[in-house]
Structures
1.
Amino acid sequence: MHLSSLVEMVESGFDDRVLLGTADDPVTGTRFGQMVRAGASTLQGATAVVYAGENHPLLPIALFSAAWAGVPFVPVNYRLEDHQLNALIARQPGALVLADSTTAPRLTGDSAPVVFDDWLDSLPAEPPAIDPPFDDDEVAVVLFTSGTTSEPKSALLRHRHLMAYLLGSVEFGGAGPDEAVLVTVPPYHVAGMANMLSNTFAGRRLVYLRAFEPTAWLDAVRREGITNAMVVPTMLSRIVDALEGQVADVPTLKSLSYGGAKVSERVLVDALTLFPATGFVNAYGLTETASTIAVLGPDDHRAAIESDDPLIKRRLSSAGQVLPMVEIEIRDEYEQPVPPGDPGMIFLRGEQISGEYATGSLLDADGWFCTRDRGFVDSDGYLFIEGRSDDTIIRGGENIAPAEIEEVLLAHPAVAEACVVGLPDDEWGQRIVAAVVLREGEAVDADTLRDVVRSQLRGSKTPEQIVFKSELPHTETGKLLRRFVLQELSESL
Amino acid sequence: MSMNLKPGARLFSAVCSTEMIAVKAPADAVEITIGGVAPVASAADREASGAVADGFGGGTAMGKRYVDVDDTVELLCTKPGDGVPAVGGALMQLKEAKALPASD
């Protein structure tokens, strides 16, 4: 199925339901359809729609207009340096470039940018009728991967991938008419795309917070009667800090999902305490898998918090169970499946798995996609992510996942952030070095932290060196930019 | 009346408010009815006087998916109504889907 079909479904099912916009200027399903048809009529001859800007209350109109016109939607990271941003846009010759008013003056490419608000104002009231496309093998969205271990790559998501995700994991019209979701993830991230699509499909009103700030987020939840929200772990951590131990006063908030990077268990336990009536959902997925492929639901969270059984307790740090329409295999270095509980490389297969870049498809002959994430699945089917395989440290022939050591460091009350990398070593091949940021006003020395790791893991996993930093580099969604930490430590140590 | 369906095709019941969209369609033509009567291509084409035929009522439900016995046709209800879809005269069955928590 094509995303243009979703527009027709919205018109049919949500004709008088408010899906977008502000209280002063609500957009019902009927108006949504009119705006998309009008938007598509401005795209004749365009090869794609690029969007360079912050979140906008009517952003889904740009995405669905592109779909209706049969061209890809390409959201780009407006926070990049000018030359990087212009280089990404130059990869889409002939595109209509939409931008927010702050970003537009920075764009110097061949296609003059159009300010998104001006484009919306200029949409024709009576557009010519355009027959929507049907071919779901066309590219719907081009996203740039976050590039934590290498340069960003452009991932292609076709209509069939996105619709497979929606049909497989979201019920059409499943949201009640009063439900609203607060969006804070940026539009150029797969979670931002998934936000738009899933909530439109569910019939849940999308409310955008342009710039994240924890107090503004809490205020918006109360003011807009928000029922659902998705945050990245750094946002969750800042919300928890802003609450200062007080239970959050958010009576409408039924569901809070988090994903996009690894969350600290301490932050999560605090959040569960401060949002006692909210269901927590952890979502794991990649750009190349058209968003979420595994979910840890509210019941799993509460069970883990309340259980004394270590196998159930540890599920708090799990990515949950794989979606029913996605197949998973954990494979060893010979690409053979391993028994439950054994770690290895995560392979995925299913209709939503794209595994494709502008440079070609990475799916193997049987349709499997190697995520390059390492992890294991326990005997009850819970998936645990250990991190990128490219980040795996090989010390004296032993494979060591940095995440395991980072978890131990992060559990120390004085530690705010930790990044563990392997540096070249004559004796061991690689030696373990940890970059640590302390919490404000806290102090701890390197030997104490090394002792903590040694007591919980073992000697071979204890960092040879611990370096204290004032901050660590992250992507906008809170993923550690390990390649920069590695580079800096290689040069300085 | 047989019709060639493709995913994304819209089906409007001629005799009730049901509106559906094809999620899965076979290569060959199929005979589909909603409420016992062949569907139409838009809401404007509905008959004012039609009624749901005996044995084809019971109602469709918003967002639910209906499949035929061979699992070759799947329709999703975008607007509910009194009729029920059928393939070759056999009522389509409600497809049970496991509810998943909203993750985004």
2.
Amino acid sequence: MSEARQIAVTVNGKRYEETVLVRVTLADFLRHQLRLTGTHLGCEHGVCGACTVLFDGHSARSCLMLAVQADGHDILTVEGIAPDAETLHPLQEAFRDNHGLQCGFCTPGILTTLIEFLRDNPDPTERDVRIAISGNLCRCTGYQNIVLATLDAAKRLRAQDRSQGET
Amino acid sequence: MILKCCTVFGTESKCAPGMKPPPFSYHDPQTTAEVVGLLTSLDNAKLLAGGQSLMPMLNMRFVLPDHVIDLNKVDGLSYIRERDGALEIGAMTRQRDIEFSDLVARSSPLMREAIQQVGHRQTRNRGTLGGSLCHLDPSAELVTVAAAHDATISVTGKNGTRSIAFADFPLGYMTPALELDELLTGASFPSWPAGHGYAFVEFARRHGDFAIVSAAALIVEDANGKVTRAAVTLGGMGPAPVRAREVEQALIGETITEQRLRDICESLRKLEAIDDIHAPASYRQQLATVLPRRALLKAHERIFAGRPS
């Protein structure tokens, strides 16, 4: 049995029309069919958070969705966070400057999670940040620098918002 | 030996590597009637709501359905409203929408407190009320809240709609009282009077984990601070949430103090408890004496403070 369907999906602003097997997860579709391998797969049962993407602007675990469910929807993966190939997103800059990653495997899921979190909560406390990333497993950093990077990113994003408000 | 999935599953042409769920037919109906029709005509079908429990089970091949019926396009199953003194929530309402609903915060602050401990932001964005109630994990927060509120479950099947009192909903371990042709369409949570005390506390190893044991407390006190009504619910003790009826009765007429709660809640140590990899039964029984006490004290303090927060 290899039931397939035609879907149209927007990923990082680009529209794709693809045929997908109905049992393929969104994560495998992104990685294997669209070759967007920035989305990582750790546990594949919704525990590690590495595969987090933004689905219509809301963070979701792409291993817990079927590709066919993305039909007509808008997805942002880690490849789509930076404004262009030369410029990092302030969140990415903050992670680089604060040593918020070591091996980097969990980073795509953490960045996508935090994009939504900092939009919902632009001025978080350290405790808020720790709860926000509680669904993302990192085995390198001990989370300390991830938390610092996030608080720094929040500050940068607030400054950016202020300066955009002035212009 | 490397086996390609096309070798294993006999799929032709396009092979999608890394595919985990077993083969199934996919259905995406748009009305409840179509869902009932599919449930009636198809064998071995599974309903897919938010997917935060079914998808892991599919990925790990714990379940092997021939048909997956996706509820995400069904109209009319996502709502939060107040009717006849109860909070009504549709089956496909996302946990996120419950978390951020002003109506929920007002009508069931207990649910609001509990839902912040359900999984993580990424799972609450997809996870639904109906999915959680039907999956019926013994320590799921929303299941415990439904027991605490004496919720009524609405169900639709080929013989029409019916209501089930939540107390009769769990038939056993992760087994809801649904017929094969039925789906849960919503649940109704009778509101407690304004100014009631509430608290949801749980013990889990990490934030977002399922609770090992959880406790939900709802209380009403009169002007003299005496308890006039109480609901005390424990999750994670057995296959379904337990209402601590003896404690609820013992609380009536009492003025809450920590020592008095300590005495009253000690009887909960006698409750039967499951014994598993997460905790032995005796540990859960210890938690059963501690967590309701903490929840009741917090509920009482909230009444005292006069400002639910």
